[in-house]
Amino acid sequence: MEQRIAIVTGGLRGLGRAMAFGLARAGYKVVAVGHIDADVAAIDEAAAGSGTAKQVLALVADLRRPADCDRVVATAVARFGAVHILVNNAGLTFTTIDPARFRRAEPQKFWQVPDAIVRAVIETNYIAADQMARRLAPQMVEQGWGRIVNVTTKLDTMNRPHTSPYGASKAALEMATEVWAKEVAGTGLTVNIVNPGAGANTPGMADEMRQMSREGRALRLVQPEEMVPPLLYVVSREADGVNGWRFDANLWDTSLPPAQAARRAGRPAGFELHPQPPAPR
Q: How confident is the model over 165-180, as pLDDT tens digits?
């Protein structure tokens, strides 16, 4: 395998950590970025224990800040020489921003969400991803090969009541994926989505799923490691012609060859548009 270097945002915990180590085990070099200092030691320890210490570099940054995005990109290039892959995974969910206000027992209306939370969610889930992509896309186009992989969410989560502004922020990234993919077509850079496809076994979402279970709905949690097979396919040479798609990990069949699993689990990114505006009522 040609040596490839990846940046994984939100890479120190949960889905991001699983994807960062999945890439490292497959031979990629990875810069895993998070926002909590204490997580760095845990990543370093896990990397040493798994034999990937030379593959994984843990960084702390607030990617809502342009200067921190610049620093992450510069550090990755200085350490590994280039960046070929960006996984935009960093995100704030409706279950972790303010659990007391966001739990189902006390659903909030959109007008009850404080300004600071709206700003934090939009800046983390969309603006940070946009900032990182705009810094790296020119390098990827120039080198003739690259991957931008965004993590959004289920379409029926984006319009779910009582999740504003989370759903709106993920919808923005979903549509950005479709737009970016069109703009990079033919350059060697592709833009796709890899999603859990259902509630993931991360701390905030696990709490949410337990609440849903109490309401009588049995749901299977997607394990973070399930994100790795579709991610490895999307960033591979085999997927050179795959651009503007979303793949749900809960539909990925690891018993199939990757391209065949991709056909089963994939659909175009973005939203289906009505051919004509709906008639007025």
A: 999 999 999 999 999 9
Residue 146 phi, psi (nearest 5): -175, 165
The domain tally of the chain equals 1
What token pair was written down for 4?
Answer: 């490839």
The pair phi, psi for residue 55, each rounded to 5°, is: -95, -25
Is residue 148 within 8 Å of residue 83, measured between CB atoms? no
Question: Is residue 131 situated within a structural domain?
Answer: yes
Is residue 77 in some structural domain? Answer: yes
pTM recorded for the entire structure? 0.90
Check which CATH number belongs to the domain holding 113 and give it: 3.40.50.720
**Structural domain contains residue 277:** no
Q: pLDDT exceeding 90 applies to what percent of the chain?
A: 68
Residues 78-91, mean pLDDT to the nearest whole number: 96
Do the domain assignments include residue 27? yes
Say how far apart CA 169 and CA 153 lie, in whole Å: 10
In whole angstroms, what is the distance from residue 225 CA to residue 131 CA?
Answer: 27
Eight-class DSSP state of 124: I
Number of H helices, E strands in the chain: 11, 8
